[in-house]
Amino acid sequence: MAERIIGLSPPSPFAFEGNLAESWKQWQKALDFYLTATESDSKSDKVKTSILLTCIGEKGREIYDTSKFENAGNKLKLKPVLKKFEEYCNPRSNTTFERHKFFTYRQEEGQTFTSFVTELKKRSAACEFDTLKDSLIKDMVICGISDNALRERMLREPNINLQKAVELGQASEQTKLHAQQLTEDMEKKIHKGKSKRRKGETKTEIGRHQRGKCPAYGQKCNKCQRRNHFARCCKQTVHQVDDSQDRASFESSSESDFVIESLVTTESEAASEVQQALKIDPLNSDTSAGHWSVTLNAGSQDISFKIDTGAQVNVLPKKLYNKLNQLAHESNKHQPSCPPTMGPPSLYMENVLSLFSIKDKNTTFSLSS
């Protein structure tokens, strides 16, 4: 009747597993609170024993039925029945194993400091530490926390006790939460500021505009000089030369003056369309001005070579090839000679042909046959 009025629920059935000794202590406390709250503690032992057997569950009732009492009347008395259950649970407590569980426990990833300390206190209850209980819990708090900076802070404290260690841990955890919240608030403000747009400003990301409303329509790309897209959306992999300059240089230059500088692959405005393009520069045009070049001596000719460390194709102009070929033919007229020597022996030179030599500062490269 009292239960219906107050609206209390009885203790959950006792689970006969794990640390039975500690679990039984906690369950017995819950039963005592329930009896007091429902005003059943003043009732007869028979009523209180019946309440116990109702709350303890089926497994507990089986143990009760198989228990032997010295006096048959004690089977309906609360204290003798509680003592039987206590005797059943206490032998299952292994102090060595419980201490092993206590000393090997560490703070888990994502576990709060308060939860970690609470779990250590629960595990220490079955370890029978007596007066060393708080001191050992303090040691395990310092050794088991995952925050190395907090551990160093605790170790610097002289004569630190459990209460001080808990205060430092809770303060550190609270500070981190506040700092994280401030950082998140700041990031939200920055993101909100970046997302604001002036009136009339439109997104220019690829594929983010409505159909037929591309802001790049009719615009000229600063990278490839083509239209209908911006430079940051350009799919071309290399810079192109100005078509007008190439056209003018082509009209004013002879065929033999041209050299193919490089072979490049470009992508057109349509992503699926790939084209091959040849870049052609006249040697005597203005488009070669400012290029990285050096003058090297080939035979008796000084030739300007363009240095292109990334070129995949290098071709000599036909006019230059003809000059070098002419030098090679002229060198064939050279006749072997006997150079003068200081002694009796003489060395006859045969097949001496100096094709060309390249001079760069103090270094000379020669190719002979």
UniProtKB/TrEMBL annotation:
Region (Disordered): 188-214
Basic residues bias: start-end ranges: 189-200
Protein name, as recorded: Uncharacterized protein
Organism: Paramuricea clavata (Red gorgonian)
